[in-house]
Specification:
357 residues; alpha/beta; Rossmann fold; 7-stranded mixed beta sheet; 4-stranded antiparallel beta sheet; 11 helices; 19% strand; globular; Ubiquinone biosynthesis O-methyltransferase; SAM-dependent_MTases_sf
Length: 357
């Protein structure tokens, strides 16, 4: 019976892909160059024109057509996508983002509890806005740590409305933080950005908008990818945290701290250890193996794979499972060490909004 159910599900997926294929191919017939802005010649963080190529890659998760470049500033070490995707391009590549091996489930209750507990030394907030909240899974968990806090969410997608319907947040604001900030000015004691800044067109505009939304004395909680992680050099294009083409900016910790202070924040806490997510080796191996497998059926592919191709892919996927499993086990085994070294792949910053002068 499970085999029959699986076969039926696979047939339904193939049918859904076949129905979407004509529209997707018509969109791609116009080319992918239109999804990119003109290449800039200076660093968006410090303005330096001393840039170097850091990474050239393709979409390793969904395998949609296109090539993406990350450049690094030789003066401030800021890494950014160049040429950057247009809003239309970001929408195209974010669509169907659950396909492929990716980074695994973004909902991690244990990790979310740890993030929420990081705010305990700063008192019980009355109001908290989670930016880039999606379906508001983080506020749902954080409420267990802060039971007297009113949690709201903000996201450009419709998922934030699902978060309201499910009772995970009290209010859902759909749109961008920079556009909604004037309407939400001075409303929140805490604003969280969990792996959100990397996906924004201008991180400093987002930080300034967050200051507008926070009350004086309120706190901004940030978790972000650390581009200085040694895993980035070790794994190259297979480093999971590059997440191309979704990540537009990778900010060294020092740049972010100086940027916050320049915008009227005081840095209250910095932590690399607890922000580390032990997925680098496992996801790197999964991405590399997926890249070498026969293509899966996706609506942006011109032809569906044949029966033999599907069978070979299934066999190789099952055959490589022990290798991926061993790499993921190594991530967990090494985590106590890697989170205390420069192999840590993320950082957490808590900053206090200063009083207006």
């Amino acid at each position: 019976m499970p085999f029959i159910q699986q076969a039926v599900q696979q047939a339904a997926v193939r049918q859904a892909v076949a129905e979407r294929r004509p529209a997707c191919l018509r969109e791609l017939a116009q080319g992918t160059d239109r999804f990119h802005e003109p290449r800039r010649t200076d660093c968006p963080w410090c303005g330096s024109e001393r840039l170097r190529l850091r990474l050239r890659t393709t979409d390793l998760v969904q395998h949609k057509p296109g090539t993406f470049v990350l450049e690094e500033c030789l003066d401030c070490c800021h890494t950014f996508q160049n040429p950057r995707l247009t809003p239309e391009g970001r929408a195209f590549y974010r669509r169907d983002a659950q396909d492929g091996p990716g980074l695994g489930a973004r909902y991690d209750a244990k990790r979310h509890l740890a993030i929420a507990r990081a705010m305990l030394p700063f008192g019980e907030p009355e109001s908290w806005l989670d930016v880039g909240t999606g379906q508001a899974r983080f506020p749902e968990v954080a409420r267990d740590v802060h039971p007297y806090t009113a949690f709201d969410g903000l996201d450009e997608g419709a998922a934030v409305l699902e978060g309201v319907r499910a009772g995970r947040i009290e209010e859902g604001h759909r749109g961008s933080l920079t556009e909604l900030a004037p309407r939400l000015a001075g409303r929140y004691d805490v604003l969280s950005m969990l792996h959100y800044l990397e996906r924004t067109a201008d991180p400093r505009e987002e930080l300034a908008a967050a200051r507008t939304v926070l009350r004086p004395g309120g706190h901004l909680l940030i978790e972000a990818v650390d581009p200085d992680s040694r895993y980035a050099r070790l794994l190259g294009r297979w480093w999971a945290s590059y997440v191309q083409p979704q990540h537009l900016h990778l900010m060294p910790l020092g740049n972010l701290l100086r940027g916050l202070e320049g915008l009227g924040y005081s840095v209250a806490a910095v932590d690399r250890r607890d922000a580390h997510v032990p997925v680098d080796l496992g996801t790197g191996v999964a991405l590399a193996l997926e890249h070498s497998l026969p293509a899966a059926d996706q609506p942006w592919r011109a032809r569906p794979p044949g029966g033999l191709q599907r069978a070979v892919r299934t066999g190789l996927t099952w055959g490589s499972a022990p290798v991926v499993g061993a790499a993921r086990a190594a991530d967990r085994l090494l985590a106590p060490l890697t989170r205390r070294t420069r192999f840590a792949n993320a950082y957490r910053v808590i900053a206090r909004r200063n009083e207006d002068e």
